[in-house]
Amino acid sequence: MKRLFSIVMALCLCMSLAVACGPTPDTQEPDTPEVPENPETPEEPETPEEPKPEGRNELVKLEGYPEGVAVYNFKNFYEDGTDDFCIGYYAIVDVKKNPALKFNAVYVEQDATPSNIFASFEGGTPILATNGGYFWDGESLSLLISGGEVKSIAAQYTWPSFEGQTHTACPIRAAFGVHADGRMEATWVYCCPDDNNNPYSFSSPKGNNEKVGVFTSTPHRSSDGTLWTPEEAIGGGPMLLKEGKNVAENSYWKEVLHSGGTAALSYQPRTAIGYTEDGKIILFVCDGREMNGSWGYTLPEVADLLKKLGAVWAINLDGGGSSVMVGKDGKALNSPSDGSQRRVPTAVVISMQ
User: Would you put residue 122 in left (φ > 0), alpha (ψ -120 to 50) or beta?
Assistant: First the structure.
């Protein structure tokens, strides 16, 4: 090898001398390679920004999901400097990147666990599922629209207690929907008795404030809102994010959810759904009540976390022992606080056609 190297070096030296000794006219310009006017440089493929954990927090991306679906398992420590933490999962669903993905609001005549709803789903291949809105004794108390048809209306009346007295209130509560053209929308909805209980959209949860004992006992009229006609929709409450602003606590009192046990300001298991400005759906579930050491989140904390993930609008769904996210194999990813999945009348299913 050394010998071959010596020969090559000698040849190079001879060529250099020959070039140096050769006559070069004064007018001769050295040859320069032609450069195209607009050189084309290959574009590097864009790589989406992956969420990253902060500080001591942990974040693991789950494998095996189809294009457009990213599922993460997180462990977040509280900012108070203690060793207490919250464990949960969130999914980012990009329906533009994969148009075969579909949001489905599912109503079942006989309540079932989200895993059973997942297994019996017929609108394509199910990818993910969560529990849906509020219910009592197997009956839905929240809005659900499937295939453009209203399957369940939100509670038109509720009876909160304030300073030892029971009041009648007609709450306008948050809902998330996807229209036939794919447009996503979160808004406040009331099913108006003066128009056959059809859902109407309102600009705010007006008329009630459970924190100070102000209640509207007269049903809201359709003339005060706008007929709301999404193809798929799930209701719950309260609204967590409005145009990127954290409105969780304020909406909680105005949607009259304190007496119902939503417990917005204590650490609890939670389920939420929102969407980003560029049309990605975000599903969120966290464990609480010390399941696997997880304390849970308050609703303002859930809103802050969803905002960090890019959500501009988001609503809360039923929480507590109902909170569950079912993965692609039909099994619960998280650990429901009841020790097993509750039977529910409504659910969210992400499917692929």
Answer: alpha
